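dumping this here before i forget
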Amino acid sequence: MSGRAMHSAVRSVRRFFWLPGGTPRHPARPLPLLRVWLFLLAVGAGGAALGLEWEGTFAMLLGTVYAMLDDVIEGVRHRWPAFVAASSVGWAVDRLAYAAVPAVSDALWGEYAVHAVWTLACLATFVAISRLPPWGRD
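structure:
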């Protein structure tokens, strides 16, 4: 790899984790994330209707993470705390739903309902945290 290409790659990685100082950081827009959630509902419902056990679930998980990472790459306000908190809330909602209603895992539609709720919880938490006022160096 040439020196110029290496420098460009290093700069891209640094930008992913640390934005330059003067970069504007806006909150995440809820409408595109709502569209992603509705699309994921359709994909998950299709997977449940076709009897696909892991494909619909995996698509919903991957779509949720990809939507949040897309906003992280754009540089929304509080991007990493929002990503970590949203992932934690989604995991907690998933575990609580399976603990509260053990029969949910008996049918694909029950699992679909749980996945629909935790994807919504993830995306809503991500948007809410990115809308908090800036602190520190933000």
